[in-house]
Design goal:
single chain, globular, 222 residues, 5 helices, seven-stranded antiparallel beta sheet, Alpha-D-Glucose-1,6-Bisphosphate, Chain A, domain 4, alpha+beta
């Protein structure tokens, strides 16, 4: 072993890294989660996670109180190739009615139930399993990112994150900007300042995983 290469690693013989093995693990994990979620179903999952959701509701109310109106915002940008922002937007709008597609986008999607205009989402937020509603997509108040094209197409939307009792605890926004051969997705989350930075950073990671999955599926399905 090279004296400078002291960190343990395992690879298939003849390969330069362990990414193929990691990919096998990811595929297997997705398969296992799909089986478990489909067998349990939405109502049994909600019952199973009832205590965790109650705990998350209490945490978010406390975070709002501690934050005293102050908010923390984070943004991640993804570069997509091989599909336009308009094509992806059309696919995503229709996909919200496909619970299997929504659940498959992220391992920590437990429920994605689309009540027209008000999807219910149950997913991990930091160390909590949070249940919330997305109350409508409005024109985004987020600024358009700098573009290298003077006629780049942009589409922005903003939605509140609302607990079951009607408490609004945050916002998410999406902005899609066409660039040559694809688009840039600007994904923003706003939470009570008491949640920063851990929960904001974790949700940006969540954004990256789910939109990576959705965009690839949208491109494959045409």
């Amino acid at each position: 072993m090279n004296q400078l290469d002291t960190k343990p690693w395992v690879r298939r013989l003849g390969e330069h890294d362990d990414q193929p093995i990691t990919h096998f693990e990811l595929t297997s994990a997705r398969r296992a989660l799909h089986l478990l979620k489909s067998k349990l179903g939405r109502e049994r999952l909600l019952e199973l996670l009832r205590d965790e959701i109650t705990e998350a509701d209490a945490f978010m109310h406390q975070a709002l109180q501690r934050s005293a109106g102050q908010q923390a915002t984070g943004t991640v940008q993804l570069r997509a190739h091989g599909i336009s922002s308009a094509a992806f937007g059309r696919w995503l709008g229709a996909a919200f009615d496909r619970e299997d597609v929504m659940l498959a986008a992220h391992p920590e999607h437990y429920v994605v139930h689309n009540v027209p205009g008000r999807p219910q989402i149950v997913e991990t937020l930091g160390e909590y399993v949070c249940s919330f509603f997305m109350d409508g997509w409005k024109e985004s108040e987020q600024p358009t990112p700098q573009s290298t094209s003077t006629d780049a197409a942009t589409e922005g939307r903003r939605s509140s994150l609302t607990l079951a009792d009607g408490t609004v605890f945050g916002w998410v926004s999406t902005l899609f900007e066409d660039v040559p051969d694809g688009f840039i997705a600007t994904l923003t989350v706003t939470l009570p300042s008491a949640c920063a930075p851990e929960l904001v950073d974790q949700h940006l990671e969540h954004f990256a995983v789910e939109f990576h999955s959705w965009i690839l599926v949208a491109a494959e399905q045409g």
